[in-house]
Design goal:
heterodimer; A: mainly alpha; 19 helices; B: alpha/beta; Rossmann fold; five-stranded parallel β-sheet; 5 helices; 6 strands
């Protein structure tokens, strides 16, 4: 009986696998057939030769728009402008707007990418709607398209969305905002970070500020640190200060060496080490005996690599420090990087 | 009459297709190659007038191919344009150090690339 059951299960599995493979092959063949018609026409249109455009069938929309997207991803300049003119003449803009309302997940991404690359201002309401949909990849592409179409206005409408999106990594957020002037992005993100009531949203926005490194972001991180924010926000603000390397920030960072949360103390040590204020290396050395391994390790790295302390003194410290954890941290880091 | 032959070593079919169409429209003969190994074989049997070389390729990267090319006496003077998404200063310096004559970052302007090809072929 078990043998028959296993045979039946294996047969069903094979049938499903063959069916899926057949479907994939048919999809690939259908896509190739569509591209065989549309690719030569798009190529000709890039050379300012406007050929007769094929009729765009409803089921071909996704494949044709995806082809247009791939072509415009690699190039810029007049050829892209000509492809935009072609898109209008061939009815691709209308097709993209329709697809963005009724397509599947992948088709929604294709439509959003197309509308953004085509800088279709009339598509903004559709994109605002897409920016509310699941999954995050659809929302992110719609948001990026909004920024592409109207960089400054787009940033102002997209940043509050990013603040709400718990599933949007800061690197994705930066990619969404990439086509807008960096100082505008920094200013708008900083403004929302300062006003945010939710610590999670505030932390996400400060994460973005740490990557984009604008002046407004630096000022916002200073202001937030002065307000003694929640730990998750404080640690990210310290990361922003670390990136900006302004010696005058040391006074804001020092109190956080004593913060109750170890992940904040780690960031404080890292920031202070980068700022290299006078006497701060000895404050960092004070963290060598911290109760958390990561803080001790980061402090030991800062001490060993500091130009303000002679190597002989560090080695002496590693042998005579009264705290055995501090000695251990120094010996470990000296062993890892001290010899180089 | 067919113009000088250009070898395009690029693994993205959309980009190589565009390059082929554009360069052939300008009168060049174009051959498309996808992998580094295939490129080295083709260079050995029938050297082109100019090479457009992608940085990131399956199996061999573009820099390795370029170094091999420059170490072979017959190909030392073959003009090479590196075409890549790698835009950092470090990558560009590495490309020129390996022997590239020009370096074009994606996304690129097709008309500008054709002009660079024509300039290098005039100087070759």
């Amino acid at each position: 009986m078990i043998g028959l059951g296993a045979l039946a299960a294996a047969s069903v599995f094979l049938l499903v696998a063959f069916a899926l493979r057949g479907r994939l092959v048919r999809q690939t063949e259908r896509r190739a057939a569509i591209e065989a018609v549309w690719l030569p026409v798009m190529l000709q249109s890039m050379r300012q030769e406007f050929p007769a455009t094929p009729t765009l069938r409803r089921r071909e929309r996704g494949a044709v728009l995806a082809l247009w997207n791939r072509m415009t991803a690699a190039i810029e300049g007049e050829a892209v402008e000509r492809l935009c003119v072609f898109a209008d003449r061939a009815g691709l803009i209308t097709a993209a707007r329709a697809l963005s309302k009724e397509g599947s997940g992948e088709e929604l991404v294709v439509a959003a990418t197309f509308l953004g690359r085509n800088r279709d201002a009339a598509g903004i309401p559709v994109l605002l709607d897409l920016a509310q949909k699941e999954p995050v990849v659809v929302r992110a592409e719609a948001a990026r398209a909004l920024v592409r179409i109207e960089p400054e206005a787009g940033v102002r409408s997209v940043v509050p969305m990013i603040a709400r999106w718990e599933d949007c990594h800061s690197a994705v957020a930066v990619a969404i905002l990439r086509d807008a002037p960096s100082e505008v992005v920094s200013e708008v993100v900083a403004g929302h970070a300062l006003a945010a009531q939710d610590p999670g949203a505030q932390a996400r926005l400060v994460d973005v500020l740490a990557i984009i490194k604008g002046r407004a972001g630096h000022a916002a991180a200073r202001t937030l640190l002065d307000r003694q924010p929640p730990p998750e926000v404080a640690s990210r603000c310290l990361a922003v200060l670390r990136e900006h390397r302004a010696p005058e920030d040391a006074i804001l960072v020092r109190p956080y060496l004593k913060h109750e949360m170890p992940f904040v103390r780690v960031q404080a040590v890292a920031a202070l080490a980068r700022l290299q204020g006078s006497g701060d290396v000895w404050r960092i050395a004070g963290c060598l005996g911290d109760r958390d391994w990561w803080v001790r390790n980061r402090a030991a790295r800062a001490v060993v690599t500091s130009p303000a302390i002679a190597r002989s003194l560090v080695e002496l410290l590693a042998s005579v420090h009264p705290d055995r954890y501090a000695r251990g941290a120094l010996v470990q880091v000296l062993g890892e990087i001290g010899a180089s | 009459m067919v113009g000088p032959r250009i070898l395009v070593i690029e693994d993205e079919p959309d980009i190589s297709g565009m390059l082929q169409f554009y360069l052939e429209s300008e009168g060049f003969e174009v051959e498309l190659i996808i992998t580094g190994a295939e490129a080295m074989d083709r260079l050995a049997t029938d050297p082109p007038a100019l090479v457009i070389l992608d940085y990131m390729l399956p199996h061999h990267n573009g820099l390795t191919i370029l170094r091999q090319l420059r170490e072979t006496a017959a190909w030392v003077k073959t003009p090479v344009i590196m075409l890549t998404a790698k835009s950092s200063e470090h990558d560009q310096v590495a490309g020129f150090d390996a022997g590239a004559d020009d370096y074009v970052v994606k996304p690129f302007q097709l008309d500008s690339l054709v002009a660079r090809v024509q300039r290098l072929l005039k100087g070759a």
